[in-house]
TrEMBL record:
CDD domains hit by this protein: AAA, REC
Keyword line: ATP-binding, DNA-binding, Nucleotide-binding, Transcription, Transcription regulation
Alphabetical list of InterPro entries matching this protein: AAA+_ATPase (IPR003593), AAA_lid_NorR (IPR058031), CheY-like_superfamily (IPR011006), Homeodomain-like_sf (IPR009057), P-loop_NTPase (IPR027417), Sig_transdc_resp-reg_receiver (IPR001789), Sigma_54_int (IPR002078), Sigma_54_int_dom_ATP-bd_1 (IPR025662)
PROSITE patterns tied to this protein: RESPONSE_REGULATORY, SIGMA54_INTERACT_1, SIGMA54_INTERACT_2, SIGMA54_INTERACT_3, SIGMA54_INTERACT_4
Sigma-54 factor interaction domain: residues covered: 139-368
The protein's name in its UniProt record: Sigma-54-dependent Fis family transcriptional regulator
Domain of life: Bacteria
Organism of origin: Oryzomonas sagensis
Signal peptide as annotated in the record: none
Domain Response regulatory: 3-117
Keyword Transcription regulation included in the entry's annotation: yes
Amino acid sequence: MANVLIIDNDDATGSSLCRTVTDMGHDASWRKNLREGVPLAVSRPFDVVFLAIHLPDGNGLDLLPVIQATSSAPEIIIMTGADEPDAAETAIKSGAWDYVTKGAAPEEVKLPLVRAIQYRQEKLYCSRKNVTSLKRDDIVGSSRKLTACLDQVAQAAVNDIPVLITGETGTGKELFARAIHHNSGRAAGNFVVVDCAALPDTLVESLLFGHEKGAFTGAEHGRDGLILQAHGGTLFLDEVGELSVSVQRAFLRVLQEHRFRPLGGSREVESDFRLVSATNRDLDAMVQGGQFRSDLLFRLRSFTIEIPPLRDRDGDVKELVRYHMDRLCERYGLAHKGFAPEFLQSLAAYAWPGNVRELINTLDRVIVSARYEPTLFPKHLPSDIRIKAARAANGHKRQGDAPPAAFHGLPPLHDFRDETVQRAENNYLHELIAVTRGNINEACSISGLSPSRLYALMKNHGIHRRYFDPDAEGE
Ligand SMILES: Nc1ncnc2c1ncn2[C@@H]1O[C@H](COP(=O)(O)OP(=O)(O)OP(=O)(O)O)[C@@H](O)[C@H]1O
């Protein structure tokens, strides 16, 4: 929630702005002259100040530098009259964040305000970035696009504004929502998931708001709803696009006031939760089609994180395969497996319409087909995946796409050698784990390495030492 100060003597403009700001979930203070407005800006931290130019006791632009010099250094949005074409230019030259015309519709005021708040949050994040190290939870991948999303998680974690996570099915939206929670100041509170697609119409209100004993037939005990369970923590609305219109209305009120009345209750209760939502639907199109409330959408997406599909994340498939294959082997009590390079190449060539979830399901099928065999080859892949991957590779050739760099000519020997050694070492280590079934003495005796050298090599390759040392903590 941001703190916004309005300095304007015009009653209609001031009250309309106050309403818009509070409707967006922020705190609004309103003063009608510089005599009261400027001392307030000095004494209390504000994020944004809406400042009129012509005020009863002076020109707002003259005091703009004073407001900017306060310790909270708020962003200033100047309010100009429709008949002052030069005022906008003057405002920008004076270092204001933006300007709006007095009497503008609320929608026109919201965007500069959202941007100013986002800018401040990013600034705050950058200043804290050096001391903040993100807990990635189980998020695997180091592609540029995934790393950019992790940066956004870090930004979202240091403030409390609502976050909307978008992306195709199976891209990891829930995982990212959990990462925001675990890295936030609310990590000690609950992370409560509301699966909006699975809320039965008849029970939705009691599930969300809770109920008192005897509120309806069969309510033998009172019960807290999901919203109250999220008090002090994070409420995650998964598949938010599936909320029915009547529940959207009820939710909007809860988001505005953070208060609600349980079914059968006589008093309202309060819940201080942070909201994160996710969807794979086009909510703007749903607003256009009348299926989603625009005022609710506005509240949900103060900050947006768009998770890219797996096919656009260069190199992540390989990392995900190693990570999830190791977890699956552990779950089935199997020794860890090595990979033939062609196995990984086939997986990387496939488009993964179901994204990471489809990849994990595929690996599950691979385990069934490979069982105790220590190395995975393309033949272990389900045939539909092999066929689609082969078609995708052929498609590239037929369409005359530039062939991969390796086919043009040779890379520099130095790069080629390094990459080959790295790959060979990595395969060797996985084979070693598989062959020795995690017996460190046997692994040292086969490889001729000391335990410390072996552990160091594993660390270089991002392979966890617990494969040989089950008591090892996460690194
Ligand atoms: N980057 C990642 N690293 C490791 N595992 C991942 C990653 N992304 C997703 N997963 C795994 O993929 C599966 C699907 O992820 P998740 O449920 O978060 O996707 P989603 O986008 O919320 O899907 P949906 O839209 O269908 O609800 C989960 O098992 C999750 O742990």
